[in-house]
Write a sequence for this structure.
């Protein structure tokens, strides 16, 4: 018995100091792994094929390996510097051409030519995988979002061929299907899907051969991911070369010492995928990682640690919204009786603007900001977020006013809502605490206005929620009365946020049965205007239209943070750079 | 029954087992709508507009038997499908993640079994004495400890408090670079074994350093179970007539315990140990996740969470084969422990 007591006492001596301490956080973080940049995060790479990847993890690695025709000038999202193109010019309002640099080689030794650039974009149009990013090329170049309809290919080889062509030997010209603003095209090209491939290498490894004359190219349309050699092989011109991708574990890149801009600052870049936060945190504090992904809920654990480089208040180009469904599936089991009898809501409950305004006024935005985002967010009045042309923080936005909210709800449904009340169920994706918090805030506020206003809350698996949002019957939309989902920028233009939320055929608006011909016309007019005061005014009008006729309760634009060891420097924030570490090629690591 | 014939018969039984398991799992996944299953292929909200196209591409709205038939046909052609969560074929994913799990199981199983047998038999031999009480308390404590809590606590102590002593993961990044270089041959992807085969001491030590905490975490819970099982089995043996006879004949108590009682008490422990090994080889989800020791459990849990049906089916097939084989080995082991047991014929 004695040895057990001794063992327990010894263990206690070790356990208690460890548990009451900060996990070693008060000790200086050692300088380790010289010449390497090691980060731990959670998002696994989907594919290294630039025309396939549409997630930030894939985009980040693609950015390290490949180059694009041009790049953003540091923090700016509207000014550009040269990349693989040394110059560019607008040929007309429907064409733009880029001069391709010479003397640049791919990792496998091939020389960059205009043919590679032409091939890259034509291959993207040919491939056009379902759910992928190439709609951003399809729309301006071919005039349609996808190359297929009902499973049939709806473009011809000649159309693709005409969209991208080599002119004057080393210029590549993009011919738009309609007048398309040059700045938006550049914003699209600068992202990872604009990464330039080596045609010869691709063809030698079984990719599409570049022939658009017959029907053969159609076999490469919408392939399975694994059908492409490029999903796990890479050959770019970028600062790092793919060394090893151990799926689910890590991806390791090694320096391209012959990089045309000069040797990169890290010999090795390792991205490890680690699900457990405590493990990531301890790895950072032990100096075994230079940067880790920190979920918002755990930020507080690192704030007092001196040995870290902490960067805060970074406005990310994303938002979250509680969408009203104007045409709920009458068969939904989330709307109680399906009638305005105090036991449910009718399927067109939210078509009454007083209901939507009442809900928008009832929501406690300050509490949401404090509890869900821990104070790190910006409240929004429309889908437009800070960092986009047209965003103006002084434009009207809803604030909680329970008296006003009660007054609006009193007017709803011919004045019957107050006496009858309502019941329905809101859902959130299980595990998402900020979204659960938003549901609770709304439910509590409505109940405080009138105990007959009863909203219950239900967690649901994310795939099930998506299934219930993006669905419709012949006469109605999905079964969710209110749904929460966010939007992340494809490219930093106001239209990329306004269209999904407000255009009647938009990604979200369509599944809400929301929108009007008047607003659609306003959106279409603003879409291709040049940035400037006139466009700002147009988006101010659109913003006001959303405020006057809310399609949802705009929650917030989150403010991001980054945590590095103190040995890392050179970070700057451009909201379009995928992944969290930032512009790695311009960053460095040193002990001093 | 001849051993070879017995093994053949048991292996034949695999066919209906595998068929049943896959039909069952496939049927369960059909409770999820085509859209829910299609979301596996979408990585951004923008991709949602293509869900109908994805459903059509993968035939997710076809009748159950058509989808199952397509999958089965694929399997007969040696293709278990594509694991979207880890971007590789399912067959390759099994061989990719199995070594990590096997390494854990290989190190943990002997510790669990030997420790459990030793303390379980000691407790039984000293029933109601301090050793017995202490063993039972430790067993209850071990069994009650939540794995995630124990794992995190150990990591906080031995990686956080004692700076970097026992890190998570399978290898440090420097050793990872070494094992993936051309100079190191990865025969099995079991790092400790490969290090021995390559005569590489630093990799062996590094791999062992990374194994200690996950092995302790897994062992703590499971030792408690084996300990309790061994104790009760031993107590039953000690009450048998042949023990009384041995004692009456004046056989030394040590010999009574080790030769007569313990050997007979081992049969249930062997059965459970077989299942324990099979279960460990199927992955320890929480331990693998906490320590970033990514193996079968991590892969299977990610696949299930994201409705990656090909992966889930591949994992189920693997587990079914594993359990049938372990059962077979356990049956053969019975004959070694207890000569009265005959294969296929029960106890003589």
């Amino acid at each position: 018995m004695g040895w057990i007591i001794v063992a327990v006492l010894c263990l206690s001596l070790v356990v208690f100091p460890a548990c009451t301490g900060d996990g070693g956080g008060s000790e200086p973080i050692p300088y380790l792994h010289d010449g390497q940049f090691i980060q731990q995060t959670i998002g696994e790479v989907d594919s290294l094929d630039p025309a396939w990847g549409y997630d930030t993890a894939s985009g980040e690695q693609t950015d390290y390996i490949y180059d694009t025709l041009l790049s953003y000038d540091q923090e700016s999202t509207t000014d550009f510097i040269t990349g693989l193109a040394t110059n560019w010019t607008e040929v007309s309002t429907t064409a733009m051409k880029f001069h391709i640099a010479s003397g640049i080689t791919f990792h496998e030794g091939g020389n960059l030519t205009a043919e590679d650039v032409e091939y890259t974009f034509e291959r993207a149009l040919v491939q056009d995988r379902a759910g992928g990013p190439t709609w951003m090329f399809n729309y301006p170049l071919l005039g349609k979002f996808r190359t297929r309809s009902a499973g049939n290919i709806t473009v011809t080889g000649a159309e693709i061929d005409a969209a991208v062509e080599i002119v004057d030997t080393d210029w590549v010209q993009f011919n738009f299907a309609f007048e398309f603003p040059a700045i938006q095209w550049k914003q699209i090209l600068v992202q990872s899907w604009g990464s330039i491939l080596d045609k010869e290498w691709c063809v030698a490894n079984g990719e599409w051969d570049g022939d658009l004359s017959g029907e053969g190219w159609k076999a490469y349309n919408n392939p399975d991911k694994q059908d492409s050699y490029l999903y796990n092989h890479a050959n770019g011109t970028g600062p790092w070369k793919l060394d090893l991708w151990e799926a689910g574990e890590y991806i390791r890149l090694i320096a391209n010492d012959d990089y045309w801009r000069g040797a990169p600052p890290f010999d090795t870049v390792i991205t490890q995928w680690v699900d457990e936060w405590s493990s990531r945190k301890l790895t950072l504090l032990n100096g075994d990682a230079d940067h880790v992904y920190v979920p918002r809920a755990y930020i507080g654990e690192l704030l007092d640690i001196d040995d870290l480089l902490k960067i805060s208040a970074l406005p990310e180009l994303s938002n979250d919204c509680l969408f009203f469904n104007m045409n709920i599936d009458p068969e939904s089991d989330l709307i109680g009786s399906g009638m305005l009898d105090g036991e449910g809501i009718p399927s067109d409950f939210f078509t009454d603007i007083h209901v939507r305004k009442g809900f928008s006024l009832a929501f406690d935005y300050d509490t949401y900001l404090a509890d869900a985002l821990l104070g790190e967010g910006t409240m929004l009045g429309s889908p437009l977020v800070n960092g986009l042309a047209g965003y103006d923080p002084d434009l009207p936005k809803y604030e909680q006013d329970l008296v006003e909210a009660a007054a609006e709800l009193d007017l709803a449904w011919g004045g019957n809502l107050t006496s009858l009340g309502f019941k329905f169920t809101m859902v959130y994706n299980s595990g998402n605490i900020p979204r659960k918090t938003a549901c609770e805030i709304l439910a509590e506020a409505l109940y405080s206005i009138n105990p007959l206003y009863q909203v219950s809350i239900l967690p649901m698996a994310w795939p099930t929620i998506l299934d219930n949002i993006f669905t419709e019957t012949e006469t109605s939309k999905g079964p969710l009365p209110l749904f929460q989902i966010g939007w992340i920028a494809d490219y930093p233009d106001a239209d990329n946020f306004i269209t999904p939320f407000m255009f009647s055929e938009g990604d979200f608006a369509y599944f809400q049965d929301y929108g009007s011909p008047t607003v659609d016309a306003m959106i279409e007019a603003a879409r291709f205007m040049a940035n400037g005061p006139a466009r700002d005014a147009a988006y101010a009008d659109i913003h006001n239209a959303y405020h006057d006729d809310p399609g949802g309760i705009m929650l917030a634009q989150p403010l991001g943070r980054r945590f590095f060891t103190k040995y890392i420097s050179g970070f700057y924030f451009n909201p379009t750079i995928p992944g969290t570490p930032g512009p790695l090629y311009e960053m460095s690591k040193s002990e001093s | 029954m001849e051993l070879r014939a017995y093994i053949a018969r048991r292996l034949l039984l695999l066919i209906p087992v595998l068929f049943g398991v896959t039909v069952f799992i496939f049927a369960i996944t059909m409770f999820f709508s085509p859209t829910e299953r299609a979301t596996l292929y979408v990585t951004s909200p923008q991709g949602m507009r293509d869900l109908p196209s994805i459903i059509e591409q993968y035939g997710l709205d076809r009748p159950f038997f058509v989808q199952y038939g397509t999958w089965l046909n694929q399997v007969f052609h040696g293709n278990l499908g594509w694991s979207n969560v880890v971007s590789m074929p399912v067959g390759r994913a099994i061989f990719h993640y199995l070594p990590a799990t096997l390494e854990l199981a290989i190190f943990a199983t002997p510790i669990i079994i030997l420790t459990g047998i030793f303390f379980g038999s000691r407790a039984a031999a000293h029933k109601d004495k301090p050793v017995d009480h202490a063993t039972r308390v430790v067993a209850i404590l071990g069994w009650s400890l939540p794995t995630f809590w124990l794992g995190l606590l150990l990591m906080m102590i031995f990686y956080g408090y004692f700076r970097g002593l026992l890190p998570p993961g399978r290898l440090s990044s420097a050793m990872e670079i070494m094992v993936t270089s051309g100079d190191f041959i990865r025969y099995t992807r079991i790092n400790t074994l490969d290090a021995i085969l390559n005569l590489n001491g630093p990799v062996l030590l590094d791999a062992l350093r990374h194994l200690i905490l996950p092995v302790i975490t897994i062992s703590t819970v499971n030792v408690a179970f084996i300990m309790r099982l061994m104790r009760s089995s031993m107590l039953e043996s000690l009450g048998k007539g042949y023990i009384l006879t041995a004692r009456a004949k004046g056989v030394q108590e040590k010999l009574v315990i080790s030769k007569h009682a313990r050997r007979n008490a081992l049969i249930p422990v062997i059965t459970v140990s077989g299942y324990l090994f099979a279960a460990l080889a199927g992955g320890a989800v929480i331990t693998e996740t906490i320590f970033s020791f990514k193996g079968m459990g991590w892969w299977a849990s990610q696949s299930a969470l994201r409705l990656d049906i090909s992966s889930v089916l591949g994992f189920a097939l693997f587990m079914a084969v594993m359990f049938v084989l372990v059962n077979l080995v356990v049956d053969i082991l019975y004959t070694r422990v207890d000569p009265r047991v005959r294969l296929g014929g029960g106890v003589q």
About this structure: The CA atoms of residues 186 and 194 of chain B lie 6 Å apart. The two ends of chain B are 13 Å apart (CA to CA).
